[in-house]
C-alpha cells in the first residue's frame, strides 16, 4: 500500500477512535486519489463505516442533494465524505461534518478558505446553518513522494 494511502487511513482511524460518532470529510483536488482512497477504505479490515463521494462527475442536482442529505443526517448515513475541492468550494451545505482532512494544498489561499468555510461555522464563507457540534480542521497534507516531499506531514 502506498505511503500516502497508509497515512490517510491512519488519520481516519485516529479520528474514528477519538470521535466515533462524528463525520469526516476528506478533500482533495484529485478525483483519482479519492477513488484510490475509497477502495483502500473498503478493503481495510476494521473500517465499518459508510463512505460517500461528492464530485464533478455527479451531474444530477437531485443526486447531489441526496448525497449531502444522507451525509448531513445525524446518526445515520455515511460517516466519511470524499469531496473534490472544486465541487466543495461553491455553495455547499455540509453541516454534518465535524472533521475536515485536506489532502494537499489547494491552488490559492482563497480556494482553501472557501472550502473550509463551507464546513466550519467560524469561517466567513459559510452560507449554511450553523452546526451545533464542534468543528475540527485537520491540516494534514498528504503528499506524493515523487516530488521529493515526505509522504505525510502535519
Strand order of the largest sheet: 2-3-1-4-5
Provide the succession of SSEs: HEHEHEHEHEEE
As for the CATH topology, it is: Rossmann fold
- CA gyration radius, whole angstroms: 15 Å
Kindly report the name of the CATH homologous superfamily: P-loop containing nucleotide triphosphate hydrolases
Major sheet size, sense and barrel closure: 5 strands, parallel
Notes on the structure:
By secondary structure, the chain is an alpha/beta fold. The protein has one domain: P-loop containing nucleotide triphosphate hydrolases (Rossmann fold, 3-Layer(aba) Sandwich). It has helices at 3-18, 31-43, 61-72, 85-88, 109-117, and strands at residues 23-28, 51-54, 80-84, 97-102, 136-138, 141-142, 152-153. The strands form two sheets. The protein has a five-stranded parallel sheet, with helices on both faces. The protein has a two-stranded antiparallel sheet with strand order 6-7. Helix 3 links the parallel strand 2 (51-54) and strand 3. The longest helix has 16 residues, at 3-18. The two termini are 20 Å apart. 29% of the residues are buried. InterPro entries: Helicase_C-like, P-loop_NTPase, SNF2/RAD54-like_C, SNF2_RAD54_helicase_TF. One of its GO terms (biological process) is DNA repair.
